[in-house]
Fold these 2 entries.
Entry 1:
Amino acid sequence: MMFAAAALALLATLALALVRAVKGPTVFDRAQAANTIGTVAALLLAVIGFLTGRPDFLDLAITYGLLNLIGTVAVLKYFRYGDLGDPGDAEGETGR
């Protein structure tokens, strides 16, 4: 019963994060909301796996969480530098 309540709370959190992703005034608010959606989705996978008695869902949740982290870093790097191939501050480069 407690995990079902946790699943409902996670669904409510997911809905609120989706609203923030759509309405966010800046691109960084939207990126944070997308990261939150990914994290809540991973938690929801873990809870559903527990509710259905399928512990292999936890492996999926961990993999999804790692992909969420890598995706968020890539999107923020793209918005910062405009290119994913830019290494950032290269040696010998003066300030911008």
Note: The chain is about 75% helix and 0% strand.
Entry 2:
Amino acid sequence: MNNTGENVITPEGIRELITPLFAGSLIELLDVQLRGGRGRIGFAIILDHTERGITLKECTMFSRQIEELLDMAENFPREYALEVTSPGVGHPLRYDWQFRKNIGRKLKINLVEVDEKGRPGTFNGELTGVSGEELQFKDGTTLAVREIAEAKVQLPW
């Protein structure tokens, strides 16, 4: 339990506990994943910089700060594994700043709407701009963010 009496040993509990660490910085907390293994609880904390990629130095700094918070949290296991990492290429894009960082790259997009067989529609294209809630692509296509179920950067190889 954390100081508010809530269980910290959940992704939501850890998110609540560590979110204040990022206030006033350009670092964003993208995800908290619970990972178990051989009786030891583990967490992956996925961070990114809003204007560029996050550095190893920044991950290390936040890892130490997160570890301190977890070590001070009440009823948190003393044995745990913590990984603080960047999102990597396969992590979905969710926020406008993520789309802006990837202008000029090809994206693979699964659309919210499904086809006649119940499969989600897909779109592949080079992102050329972000304007409000819309994305513009090299071929002239414009997609509203609300139409996107999932978007990922497509590797060039």
Note: The helical segments are 11-18, 56-72, 96-101.
